Amino acid sequence: xxxxxxxxxxxxxxxxxxxxxxxxxxxxxxxxxxxxxxxxxxxxxxxxxxxxxxxxxxxxxxxxxxxxxxxxxxxxxxxxxxxxxxxxxxxxxxxxxxxxxxxxxxxxxxxxxxxxxxxxxxxxxxxxxxxxxxxxxxxxxxxxxxxxxxxxxxxxxxxxxxxxxxxxxxxxxxxxxxxx
Amino acid sequence: xxxxxxxxxxxxxxxxxxxxxxxxxxxxxxxxxxxxxxxxxxxxxxxxxxxxxxxxxxxxxxxxxxxxxxxxxxxxxxxxxxxxxxxxxxxxxxxxxxxxxxxxxxxxxxxxxxxxxxxxxxxxxxxxxxxxxxxxxxxxxxxxx
Lengths: 180, 145
Hints:
heterodimer, A: alpha+beta, B: alpha+beta, five-stranded antiparallel beta sheet, 2 helices
């Protein structure tokens, strides 16, 4: 019963096995994290696409089916000029009056993260969730004839507010005001 | 006599292990590639629809200049902010959007009298891992819609 007869790993065996594990583990983690990273990017793009498309549909139907006039911020004067090239200057907010005379303001709310908001005289609704960041929201409007309803053109860019900041998607669309 | 593994045992073990490792590695590689492709497809689809919206707007703005610009011509749209550039002879010579997508729109007059309808083919193509992928959109614009 001597200590020498007990079965055990030799130093060499332990050193070899530990170094093999040390070689394998980092690559396993690298693969794991690159898959994770890609999933995050994919989810980020899906989120931005869903929200961006949704904003586009909501704003379009609001402009096409509800709005009667585009006005200045006092809701009294019509603002859309006859078409002049280059395109009219971009404004950060759009003031609409619907057919019943209700006021609607579409704007970029300075909250964190910045979101697109639709505000009536009393209430504000956000059209994007806090998972995306809205930048460069802008509106132009113009008419091709003095007797036609104006076109509103909307621009915005969606970015991911947290987790993955490099992804961004620009949106542009236009719709014609329904009219009174 | 000291007990130990025979050569056959070691060879079988190592070959099984290597088969498992190689297949695991190839699964990981394929899934990474597919994910990347999916992301690029989502982006391509978005940029195709962005151009479609813009062209729709150009049509709504002024049909006469739209039909003049859009008579059997191909235009490149290589910037995120959209604008008419000079027409080109083929979409394959377009500069790259975001360093990877080739985005162009081919306009063709059609319709019974040849001036009331324009066929537009929007195409976004990109190369990835030796393959070429494309998101084509075919739209018909007419004057009275």
